[in-house]
Design a protein that fits this description.
This protein has about 90 residues and is α+β, with helices and mostly antiparallel strands. It has a single domain, classed as Folate-binding fold (2-Layer Sandwich), CATH 3.30.2270.10. It contains two helices and six strands, in the order E-E-E-H-E-E-E-H. It is globular, with a radius of gyration of 14 Å.
């Protein structure tokens, strides 16, 4: 699988570190209930189909990327910088 980094161009997926689903960006408040923190840290969906995942370009520009991909076909339909999305 190859990812197109917005800064570095097309790269092999081994340059990246997979971090998890996009919802990981939505961290609970510091004073949230323990059950909410437990779910945030330990419970993950494993859907078949289109997902939006966080990837870190570890062997490249050191940027966090939001990758839209299909977990069944491995087709990458979009890659964007997280920093641009949050701005």
């Amino acid at each position: 699988m190859r990812l197109r980094c917005p800064l570095c161009g097309e790269r092999d997926r081994r340059e990246f570190y997979y971090y998890g689903a996009e919802d990981y960006l939505h961290r609970p408040a510091a004073d949230a209930a323990l059950a909410e923190w437990d779910a945030y840290l330990h419970l993950r969906d494993n859907p078949a189909g289109v997902t939006r995942d966080l990837w870190y370009h570890e062997a490249g520009c050191s940027q966090w990327l939001l990758v839209t991909r299909n977990t069944v076909t491995h087709e990458i339909s979009g890659v964007e910088l997280v920093v641009e999305r949050k701005a």
